[in-house]
Structures are given as C-alpha cells and as structure tokens.
Amino acid sequence: MAKINTNSNVYTICYAAVLVVLVAFLLAFVSSALKPAQDANVAIDKKSQILASLNVRGLAKSEVEAKYDELIEETCVLTPDGQMIEGADAFGVETKEIGQKFPIYQATTAAGDEAFVLPLKGRGLWGGLWGYVAVTPDFKQVLGAYFDHESETAGLGALIKEPKFQEQFIGRPVFGSEELQVALTVVKKGTATAQTEVDGVTGATLTSKGVGEMVTAGIQQYVDAFSAYLDGMFGGQEPECGKRQQGCNGCPEADRARCQDGQDCNRPCCQNEAE
Amino acid sequence: MALFSKANMEALTGPLNLNNPVVVQVLGICSALAVTAQLEPAIVMGLSVTIITAFSNLIISLLRNTIPNRIRIIVQLVVVAALVTIVSQVLKAFAYDVSVQLSVYVGLIITNCILMGRLEAFAMMNGPWASFLDGIGNGIGYAIILVIVGFVRELLGAGTLLGIQIVPEWCYEHGYVNNGMMTMPAMSLIIVGCVVWAHRAYNKELQ
Asked: Which residue of A216, A254, A266, B150 has the lowest C-beta tally within 10 Å?
C-alpha cells in the first residue's frame, strides 16, 4: 500500500472537510434523536422548579407531574397592561418572553396557603438568571422562592440555587413604606436593615445584586400589570377569587364596557361576577 | 505487549506525582481557580476531566497516523468539542440531574489545557491503550490537586465540607470568623503555590 502523504495540501483540505461534515452530521443526529427525551426532562424540571417555589422540594422525578397537577389550579398569561391573553398557557411561556408576557400560576403552597407564582428573569454575573416567586394573592408577602442560573460561579454565585438562600425569602413583605412599590431586594450579607432586605451570598456580590434586581423589578412589573386589581384590593376588598372587585371600576378598560353590559369581566386567572 | 507493562503503568501513575499535570506540567491552572471554592464542584470537575481526557486521548491516538500535521490542533479541538457536546446531550436526555450539575463545566472542560496538552504531548505519538491510561492518570492527578485546593478553600472560607458544617457553632461564638479571602479566586493560586512548594521540597529531583 502506497503511503499517503499526510502533509500535502489536498490531503489536508479533504481531511478537514470530511472531519467537519462527519462531526456536523453526528452532532445533528444526536441532537435530533435525543430531543424528545430532553424536552420531557426540561418540562419536568420546570415543574419541579415551580413546585420548589411553593416549598415542595426534593420530589422524585416520577412524583413531580402528579404533585404539580395537584397544587397548580389555574394559569393565565397577562400582557404588560394587564389584559389576559385568551387561551394562553402560562407553562408554554418561555423564560426569555417574560417582560412581554406575564405568566401567572394560581396555586396552593405546601402549607395549604393560596398563592400566585410569578416567573421572573434577570441577569447575573456570567449569564441569565431566572426564578419563581410565590406571593400571597394580595402580593403583600412572599410565600416561597426558587432561583436558578445559567452559568454563575460554582461554589459562589451558584449558591443562589440552594434552598438555604431561597428559604430566606419565605414570609418577607414585598412592599416597603410606599404602597405598591416593591421594596423586596437582596443586599450584602449582614447589612440588611429592613424586613424587605434579604442577605446575599458572600463572595458573590454581583450575582446577589442580579437576584435583587430581578426580584425588585420583576415583581414590580407584575404589580403594574395587576395594578387595577390591586388598587381595588387596597381599598379593602375581598381577596377571594371571584369576588375580587365591586362594580366594574377594577376592570381593565377594554373589559369595562363588557362588564357594564352585565357580562363577566375577565380578571386574572378567574372570572369575576359582575354586579 | 502486556496490558500493564512498565511503560503503561508509568503513563498511568506518573501524572499522580512526579509528572503531575497541575504542579509539574503547570496545565489546567485556570480551571483550578474557577471550580475550587467548594469541594463538591472540584470533585465533579476532576472526574469529568478524567473521563474526557481518557476518551479524547483514545480517539486521537487511533487517528494519530491520519491527522495532517498542519491542522492537528484544530482536529484535536474538534474531536474534544464534539465528544464533550455529545456526552452532555446524552446526559441531558438520560440523566438530567447530572447534566444540570455539569452544564457549568462543559465550557471549562473543552478549553482545559490538560486535554490539549496531553493530546499534543502523548496521544499523537503513542498507542491507544497507553494514551487511554495516560488520560486517566492525568485526570486523576488533576483531580487530586483540585480536591486539595477545594478542601482548604471550603473549610477555611465557609467552615463547611461538601456543604456540611464542620467548624462548630461555639467557635463562631468565641470570635472565629470564616476567611472571606478563601472564597476569592486569587487564593486558589496561592494554595496551588503552597502545594507546588511542598511537592518540590519533598521531591528534590524536581528542583
């Protein structure tokens, strides 16, 4: 067998071309063959993250689906000005879409309290952050939180994923002295002066700051989208679903005429009984 | 040729001590900095690098006679990147939890100098089995250093090991504080420096 000259230009170019095409096919094949299994895993993971914000942690993979169906009652998706998008499923809203769409899960926490789970997104030191914060239906108190990250430093910023960090949020007030202004945030460990300030992670100042900004700005966006409804709440209205407002003043403007006609006025996640 | 001949054993055990990739060959320092703030990521990273180095060494060694000399580094990089990507895809489909754990390390593994260093220095001129053992040996040699650094940093920096509290509560009550410096990346270089110092003092022939 004649020995091939592995240093010739032709050989080098052919080798590179064949190698690249082979590897490309291999990667494309692996990626498409494994996609369904991966997507199923991703969906289960997302559900278990939402459950973690409701303080249900450490479930086996097989239990997640059932527990999710048990605790999540209804979901809806709002536009930034508080309109409900008809027929939209909150679970189908991807993290990157948050900001244009506001998915909300109406759920029950592990302790049996009624809660709204708000998905959030933000930026850490090296990459994206996301999280789920469960609040009481009047938005006044945090019931649980879950945060995750794309690529924060292992052992430092990555600690925001630990229950130890997340459980600090349980029971915290969302608003400060000003009504409807979210004050909940994360500060440098040991410098917290108010109930709304949560201790950050030592050695991960920028990641902690990212979580703080995500929580403050993210919940504020939901509050703004919800403001018509929350104004009513602060006027001393019943927080129970279906009795959220009296009259049609709390309705979003587009719904108001419909409400005055005696029809249902669509409120987040539930139909309101019009008077 | 025996599977565990003297030369093969040397490829396996040399990197553990006298030819250690981190403290003697000075490879993989950057990742020693990134993942050693705690013990657990250090162990995970050590294991992943061991496996990937072994298999990329094996593949490159099998291909070594066909690889054109002028583009050998690119070929090595393509093989390593493809291997790591495929492994992470398979894990994502069949062992999702592991893949989430490792997702942070994928980039660090592909760009780890130990891989390129061993492919270039060993796998390009040795047979597949010897190359495979060399990969295992270098991976473990790297893991040992990472574990030492991770152990010191987590213990002094956070008072824990593998997330379990080690320094008892009464120490803190009597004024002991965790050394925040240890959680900073720069400290890992100083600890690696101390390891090199101890290693050279013990092995006089390296001086």
From this structure: A254
Mean pLDDT of B40-62: 88
Q: Where are the domains of chain B?
A: 29-206
Question: Inter-chain contact B184–A203, Cβ cutoff 8 Å?
Answer: yes
In this prediction the ipTM stands at: 0.72
Is this model's pTM higher than 0.80 or not? no
Chain B, 139-158: which have a CB under 8 Å from a chain A CB? Answer: 154, 157-158
Mutate to test the interface with A, among B86, B102, B109 (most CBs of A within 10 A): B86
- Quick one: A141 and A260 in the same domain? no
**Closest-CA distance of chain A to residue B198, Å:** 26
Q: What is the mean pLDDT of residues B138-161?
A: 88
SS3 percent helix, strand, coil of chain A, rounded to 5, is 40, 20, 40
* Whole-number pLDDT of residue A231: 59
Residues of chain A with pLDDT under 70: 1-3, 228-275
Q: B93 in contact with A at a CB cutoff of 8 Å?
A: yes
Which of A3, A9, A151, A164 should be substituted to probe chain B, the one whose Cβ sees the most B Cβ atoms within 10 Å? Answer: A151
Same domain, A250 and A207: no
Report whether A170 contacts A192 (CB < 8 A). Answer: no
Instruction: Write out pLDDT tens, residues A37-65.
Output: 989 988 998 999 999 999 988 888 888 88
In the DSSP assignment, the letter for residue A90 is: G
Nearest CA-CA partner of B153 in B72, B69, B35? B35
Q: Which residues constitute the domain of residue A267? A: 230-272
In degrees, rounded to 5, the angle at the alpha carbon of residue A90 between the alpha carbons of residues A85 and A95 is 110
